[in-house]
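Q: Two folds, back to back.
A: First:
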Amino acid sequence: MNKENLIPDATYSSEDVGKALKLIVKRLNERKNEKIEKEIITMEKLIEILEDIQPDADYETCTTLIDDGILDSFAILSIVGELEDEFDVSVTPADIIPENFNSAQALWAMVQRLQAE
């Protein structure tokens, strides 16, 4: 055994290495798929929140929710409260800008950023 890295000295066949690499790739793909599925579920939850607060909007495609007056100040405050509760984030006054609220995608990007902080 090599004392520097505590890994036993061994020789692996190319078949063993190939199997190990396939297993690693499989597990990485499974994790990636789980992450994508979680993101879809949480984006769907965001859309539900938006539809509950302001049902008369197309959140799938609209990119002018603030610019076109679809969301008013009361709706924005309601959204902030729901986002904080549902996604365990803290939305600061500095986050409450049109760029973060003009679309569901922008809102989701803000939530992800806040979760990472």
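A: Second:
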Amino acid sequence: MADLAVGRVVDDNGQLAMISIRLNGESREIPSQLNLRALLLHFSIDPDRVAVEMNRSIVRKPDWEKTQVTDGAEIEVVQFVGGGSTPKSTVSAVNCSNTN
């Protein structure tokens, strides 16, 4: 997979440094230095169909690339879903089960 990190940070053993976050209520370990867009791609989430909240604040799509994901961040990703016979759209949490 392509290196999605803004900058590669390694620990004293030369291993990629990891941070802990909560993504849609689940604890996850991810490479440090990811921005929000890179986080979505890391979990194979289509960035065109979601909204992102970090630490209880909505982050606008134009700000994703400059918004660093930090250790302990609480992130919610929701997907807009349309369909049915009414013009009403619904929102559902995105399945982030990718173990990367």
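Q: And?
A: Strands lie at 18-23, 26-31, 50-54, 57-59, 74-81, 90-93.
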